Amino acid sequence: MTHSVISMEGINKITNSKSKTFVLFCFCFLIGIACASVTDLQIDFVYLYVSLFISLSTLIIFWKNNLVRYIVFSLVFFILGVGRFFISIPINNDNNVIYYAGDKKTIIGYVSAEPDVRMDGVRYIVHSQKFVDKTGVEHQISGDIYLKSFLYPRYEYGDKLEIKCSLELPEPIEDFRYDKYLARYGVFTLCQNPNITKIGSGDGSKILGGIYTLKSVVAEKINKLWHEPQASFMAGLLYGYRGGLGELNELFSRTGVTHIVAISGYNITIIATILISICLAFYVPRKKAFWVISFGIIIFVIFAGLSASVVRAGIMGIIVLLSRQTGRVSQVGSVMLITAVVMAVQNPYILMWDAGFQLSFISTLGLVYLTVKIRKPFEKVPEIFGIKESLLSTLSAIIATLPLILFQFGRLSIVAPIVNILILWIIPWIMMLGFFAVLFSFVFQPLALVISWVAWIGMCFIIFVVRWFASLQFSAVDVRFPLWGMIVGYVAIFLWINKKHTKVVISK
């Protein structure tokens, strides 16, 4: 028996050691991507190959030296991270549209992403297929271009377009790295002053085309059931649309509730947590509630268009649910890190230039680790309508993301905690009513109108609360953290999470 216990302890130590080593290498890979993405250095791949060769040769020679082996392996993963970032930079040759920046061209391509509809126009990402020279000869090219057009005529995903425009390289705008912002979508070329002619349709993914068509039909139903701004509000709740909110966007920002109309890990996990509380209130077993809500998140992600941000939000939400289902909070950090590595491999620009990724990642960690930390002072808060879980989740996410928000956006919402507490409990009910209102609008319009009226009351309540708190002079203050301030903030949060309470025993 003793031998078996010792062996199990030894196995656990070996497993933990390997896990920590793997985490270290993942960090080195991410640091490599981060360093390459912020320095803007142009490194020839020959130097990366030479560095890898020297590192691997050193590894073979000093394999038995544990310290050298760890250092060299860390260096190898760092180099791989640097290499992954440089692979994502398009090759500037005549086969890529970036080569023709500075010229006026006639580009033939198709709308390759869901159009971004805003108050002042529509933004499109178009995948280039050909360009037509002055003699009318077509040349094959590749690469995506970004352009802005009028609200009408409007083009849909998969529409084939002929575009005459001036091609330009995106440049930073003051402190905003506009070039990096577009690069995270795979766009490295702007199409200015476009003259657009639709010449076909049906290109691109048939699956995504079907999803976007369904969303367009749902959008039409929503516009018939509600007036603005409630129509755009409901669209934001159901699938993350923010084009018609107008001044509400600013009010949501001042009161710290922008997340309710943005598909983020913060949004999904809070709603999922509240729904779990509701399931438990109706005596739905925890295991069944977990699978039901996870399935619902997957369906929601598919309906919302499978964009990178939506998929990321779904993954983060399911990770939080899984951690609470299994109770293995200590392992969530490793799972989150692996998730970050996989996402960075798929798109290395999100690590440093996608604030949505950063907020989702950090808020998810906050929901996992800080919720447990701050739970004790709120033991007497009632469980009704999920108020307690809503409060804990809100405060955890706010604390976790505060240093990042002050660094990225420079705005602190003083009223965010109380506004979130006042409105978050009703969000799942409004979403549910909105879903059934849209569903019944296909089969029985009168019932859909009745349900939509109830949802309208709930949205009016939220808008009233947001407007009232946003009108307060102290609702938000402009406070910007420097980089070192953000780092200090997260070091303090990390130390707080890992602080262990020790009991002092005084012997007589």
Automatic annotation (TrEMBL):
Keyword Cell cycle: no
UniProt superkingdom: Bacteria
Start and end residues of each ComEC/Rec2-related protein domain: 237-497
Residue spans crossing the bilayer: 21-39, 45-63, 70-91, 260-283, 289-322, 351-370, 391-409, 415-440, 447-469, 481-498
One Pfam family cited in the UniProt record for this chain: DUF4131
Protein localization: Cell membrane
Claim: Transmembrane is one of the keywords in the record: yes
Record's GO cellular component terms: plasma membrane
Membrane topology listed for this record: Multi-pass membrane protein
Residue ranges of domain DUF4131 in the record: 46-188
Keywords: Cell membrane, Membrane, Transmembrane, Transmembrane helix
Predominant place of localization: membrane
PANTHER family: DNA INTERNALIZATION/COMPETENCE PROTEIN COMEC/REC2, RECOMBINATION PROTEIN 2
UniProt xrefs under NCBIfam families: ComEC_N-term (TIGR00360)
Identification of the protein by name: ComEC/Rec2-related protein domain-containing protein
